[in-house]
Amino acid sequence: MRILYLTQFFSSTRGGGPLIFYDLAKALSKRGHEVYVICNVATETVDNENVKIFTVKPFLENTYELPPSPTHNLRYIWNSMLLAAKIARENKIQLIHTNSFTPVIAGSLLSMIKGIPMIASIHDVFTNKDRSNWQNWTHYNNLPNYYSIIGRIYEQISLHMPFDMIHSISDTTKNDLLPYIGKRAIRVVYPAIDDRNYTTVKPTYGNFILYIGRLVFYKNIDVLIKAYDEVIKEEPTAKLIIVGEGPMEEELTNLVRSLDISENVLFTGHISHQSKIDLLSRCSALALPSMFEGFGLVILESFAMAKPVLVAKVHPLDQIVDHGVDGYLLPHNDPREWAAAIMTLLSNNQLCQEMGRNAAKKLKDKYDFERYIESMETLYADTIGGLAKRR
Questions:
Q1: Is domain 195-366 annotated with CATH 1.10.10.10?
Q2: What angle in degrees, to the nearest 10, is found between the helix axes of 16-30 and 297-304?
């Protein structure tokens, strides 16, 4: 197959969505498929002649400091469509695959103009989670209030574009999407990660908990920081390492200072994939206190390193983690519960190892990477075939 990906970020370290496309491009190119990628930012290349990566202006620099502006998004739509039309014509592209939200609009318009079938990967529906989400998004990004209206409208436009197939990464996201999709086909394919990229280092279990992700309000990182105010009363040398960038960084660092725990809570900013693996290999556990997620791919990264996870008891995180088996499910807003679970793991390496073994086994049994790639190939073939029959 000849596949065109439209995304704003193409990276193994800039979030779950970009990582999914990055891993797909690598794996599918090894299987002989031709893959073309159009993005604003490509932080990695793929060592395979079957993958061609193109960047279009306006380039993104501080990719998670602020969201792309409406003008930026419109320029991406226009520039990516012009380039995509040229690539499609010259290389007889058979399928367009996009992720949300701006690339969905660009891909849908190109699909209509060129008659090429298109899949949209939707990771979550922001509006569905809470009516205040867009207001919070505007507030914590220090944006004008009217951006919340623009954001909500923009999401609705992208969800109602006429693409051929929706790829949902969880049943939770599928249920959120059902009010919007009309008669369009939707299929759930759970993501996976290539554990061969993670098992290069033998795991140990150090005296710290790790968070990896964007520093945004719905990730709920403040509950971890407040929990550590309790943890260090019992274990003064325990550390919390926070990996990532985002608009909440200043507020979170101020919270750390106000609690006088700067020696125990460390911010790394953005790090390389290898540095991420190093930290995962040495932590006792990974923590993800998000109020909502489309899936939570970082959980699988933790499983790959044989580490238990602490997650908020929300869908779909509570469908990935089994409480007391490979991690703990905790109330998203109760720092004391988080502190108790953290202290349990930090004080018991044997328990961490046992849970970590269960996690690694689950990854192989339920989230096998080769089976995932085969499912995506089937999804691609069915989308191409389905459109051909309709036309």
A1: no
A2: 60
Q: In the CATH hierarchy, which fold is given to the domain comprising 2-192+368-390?
A: Rossmann fold (3.40.50)
pLDDT means per 10 residues, the chain with 391 residues, are: 94 83 94 95 87 88 61 91 96 94 93 95 78 78 81 86 92 89 88 84 93 93 96 95 93 96 95 92 97 92 96 95 97 95 96 97 95 96 71 31
Q: Provide the whole-model pTM.
A: 0.90
Domain ranges of the chain: 2-192+368-390, 195-366
SS (H, E, C) the chain: CEEEEECCEECCCCCHHHHHHHHHHHHHHHCCCEEEEEECEECCCCCCCCEEEEECCCCCCCCCCCCCCHHHHHHHHHHHHHHHHHHHHHHCCCEEEEECCHHHHHHHHHHHHHCCCEEEEECCCHHHHCCCHHHHHHHHCCCCCHHHHHHHHHHHHHHCCCCCEEEECCHHHHHHHHHHHCCCEEEECCCCCCHHHCCCCCCCCCCEEEEECCCCHHHCCHHHHHHHHHHHHHCCCCEEEEECCCCCHHHHHHHHHHCCCCCCEEEEECCCHHHHHHHHHHCCEEEECCCCCCCCHHHHHHHHCCCCEEEECCCCHHHHCCECCCEEEECCCCHHHHHHHHHHHHCCHHHHHHHHHHHHHHHHHHCCHHHHHHHHHHHHHHHHHHHHHHC
What is the residue type of 333?
A: N
